[in-house]
Protein 1
Amino acid sequence: MGEGHSKSHASKPPPLLSNPWRKINWGEKQSVLQFVKNYKPHVEGQQIRILLHGPAGAGKSSFINSVQSVLRGRMYTLALEDNISAGSFTKKYTTYKIQREDPQSFYPFVFNDIMGLEPIKGVHVDDIKLALKGRVMDCYRFNPESRLSEDDPFYNSSPADNDKVHVLVCVIPASTVSQMNDKTVQKIRDIRMEASALDIPQVAIVTKIDEVCPEITNDLQNVYKVKYMKEKMEQFSAEVGIPMKSIFPVKNYHDEINLDSDIDSLILSALQHILTVGDDHVNFKKTQSGC
């Protein structure tokens, strides 16, 4: 993705913008939280399936856990995480449901975690394309050398609508946007083209934003005032084609032991957009069933 910014530039980010380039209501977290808690697809029995993909160590599992923590009101670990970024920790296709306060009730959306997009030993792109169509069953163990075959017991030959992906989310760390391997970028583009052909909306989440600028480290509310952060997002948008309006910077919960309102606000902002475009996709597919 090019050589990107020099270390000297990264260590000395430009001054904060006088006005944020994107508005977010930091003090109104509860209203967005209520939106998510009240969210219900227009189609009865519908479940919004959200597929996360991206480089190994990007924070896909951490994002799932962070969403769970925000919605449950306490720190929660649903998806297993790993602090070592050498290779993908996720090996199997897994669906994660998020439980409501009622133990017998779940939110009408699920997350699917997937093996990382390493240039050589990462998930096979064809497996992600099959997952988009609902062809991959839970617990399928990814094989970087070959795609899921139709005679495999984990191949879903008759996927229901709830098996199919309704939102594709690319997760990328802010600190490595400029250093992504060209093969990884090409994989992201290939997956994006397949999703576009299926009319699946695409969102990007830029993680680890607190690691790129001290201004953000000291105060998350500066995220939309730091020009360097905007440049990172614009660079990623130009490389893979996801529009800026669908790219959201977040900080996942990592070493915190208590919830933080600013972290929650960024996570909820991204989640609200994901659910909205997912719902639009489902409604569009229902009205265009003859196409």
Protein 2
Amino acid sequence: MELRSLQSPCAVSCISHGGFTEKPFLCGLTNIKLPLENRNCPNSKKLQFVDHKARVSGTAKLKVEARNTTSSDAGGKDENLVFVAGATGKVGSRTVRELLKLGFKVQAGVRSTQRAESLVQSVQNMKLDDVAGGTPIDRLELVVCDLEKRDQIEPALGKSSTVICCIGASEKEISDITGPYRIDFQATKNLIDAATSAKVKHFILVTSLGTNKIGFPAAILNLFWGVLIWKRKAEEALLASGLSYTIVRPGGMERPTDSFKETHNITLSEEDTLFGGLVSNLQVAELLAFMAKNRSLSSFKIVEVIAETSAPLTPMGELLQKIPSHRAEVNASGVSDNANTPTPPVSESSSSKKEPEPLKPTATRPLSPYTAYDDLKPPTSPSPSANFVKLQ
């Protein structure tokens, strides 16, 4: 990345990140320091912060070459680097910590640094022995990125080989009728498109039970402005992307606390088999981190996960092995197994007598039960019609 001043050596203006103090930009990077009154975080200076929305002051003009935007960098992926979208959320923040426990380096995608303060603090409080990559805080990088702005995403992914998407519209903002469309579908699709362009090696998407079902309890959740419909459309975008994928559909995560795992063991099921159930945010985060570590076990799978008291404590690897993969079967030479099957010879007399019959269209199963919503438009605020007459 290059930083050049074209007119004057004016310093780049410091962007306030609420509670943080920072040094001027250097090659597009800033070093975050926690508030000075916090003396309990001796490693706080080591946290690196990347801001792809830099602004300049005065007449200074800067040229910043973003990371991983050229085709020459596309193949240089770091197998130990994971990008987590929604890293400040309940599932996302726990996923960041679980990845760090496994020795990964993590790029935490956040919308603002203010919301990342608790994540940084929780990572600094982790009691782990140093690994080859350093302490957990050494392996964490904050990346400010708005997933609703497509041009910000691919540079933010950098050299990440795996992307984990934990975003979702906030249920607290029930009045925002556009939330599920903007976040659960459009922002997620933007991330999928960027990951495809960046040639990311694996994409893990967290959605919800019921995304591919019609009826109870899916109908209840869809009262939240069609959230499951938009989540399913995000799944379809991932399935059509050509990326190696894993789709995780957890049960309800609102009530269970982190101690839920002490009495409930997770169980995994194939797609479209579960109708309900509970699981904790921590259990889902542990599953996501395990999938990132074991891509061969999780690739091209759709997994539904809940936790039950009656479920035996089973290693995650064994649970994942039972879930079928949707990858096409190929042999070691990369050719379909039926490619080497000999075909019976056809005599000239028989071929001349019969003309080939036209192919008949075969009925295919719709990708989604929401076929009636194929032309569904994003929600907008109601506006008065042309025939509207104001009453006096």
Protein 3
Amino acid sequence: MSAHSSESEDGSSCDSADVSYLPCCPAAKLTIVVGDTHFSEEKMLLVQSCDYFQALYRSGMKECRQQEIHLKSLRAQGFLIALAVLRGEMPNLDGDDIVEAIECAAFLQVAPLIKHLINLIDSDNCLLMYHTAATFGLMDLYHAAALFIRNMYVDLELEVKKSLPTELISYVESLRPSVFVAVGAHVTCGGDKTIHAASRTVCYLDETGNSWKVLTDLPLEASTSMAGVTVLDNKLYIVGGVHGLQKQVVESCFCYSVENNSWSRISSPAQLRYNLSLVGVDGRLYAIGGEYERTVMSSVETYNVKTGRWGFAAHLPRPAAGAACTKTMSRIFVCLWRPMETTEIYEYVSGKDEWQLVTTLIRKQSYGHCMVGHRDNLYIMRNGPSDDFLRCLMDCYNLRTGQWSSLPGHFANSKGSLFTAVVRGDSVLTLNRSMTLEYAVDDKTWKPRRQMKGFPRSGSVWTFLLQLPEALVLQ
């Protein structure tokens, strides 16, 4: 993914920013001296990715004309990590690396490095990330690490109380944890009198009381049947879908804000669609594939939340409807099937606006039906062989090593639980009518951790996470 793309006024992506203020050829090399280490890097890469260098070259100071710049407040390892991220790498960082990377990200304001650090937050490093981000004033990382800690507070509270200052503990405890939310996946528009009103509610799991509570009613014109449903920046979006026996496409699209406890309409994609996959990353929704008038499509559209506009992105390699899709490490992945028991995983590379084949999984009489991203792992839930279709098997693909592994055992899927899986911290929540089951996740295993009340609705469901304001929870 490009580390230095920018957006035009209409929200479309462009390959390069305005660098007319550079005093010489933007492609020229610049030597950066950090301590005793010299780095040679393209001026363009540094200017487009670091606020520090942007400000320097806009300032007109004498350093603008120098071929060598000394950074006296940094350590070499932190700058080396920043350069690796800017070149598109995903370096794994230990404790010392994290501190130096945060120091560098704060001093130079390197947005791609900040994003990479946020993507690396886990149970082992979240306290270090949080405390160091607070020290250097890296607020996006500070908040992301605090929310991770809040979501894992049952596991981390003792360590938090022992190792963090009072003001940092207070901030964590002031946050609302992410709650598990569900809505039926076969709810059509409210004009259909055969639909019971109770089915048109979005509900959340009160884990303390082990009960499901109503969060909000769906708008009358909204349908979750064969719709695209996702959460982006703590807002719920519903795009497309069908209503009626003839599967008429729903033209209205909706956004639910938990802060305002209200629904609003958003514009519809240029190509109306149902049975699509919808995912949200970095301020954009991606409506992937789907159907229209019973024709399967390969087209993809992206919605810019800030501008409220849709635009077309690169088509899928082939038409797909209801494709398994996920995001992890701020990257989008989709499963596409081929005959002869083949599941291919593609990544959308936004900087190049193209879909790239990542890996292929071949399993006898089996296809990937659900995909979950956790850290740098993709977990593919698939049906068992044809003589045991209700058995759910799982394979793991590691993005860093490029290796597949099969998780031991199998997972009962008679009521759809593992085909609706949501990551929260270092755990995964799954759901069916009988139970909500939380798994503790590490690289090679999913271990059942606790069981809670199932969702009292028939049929499959959409599941996601939201942070609810206290006023909504207390209703």
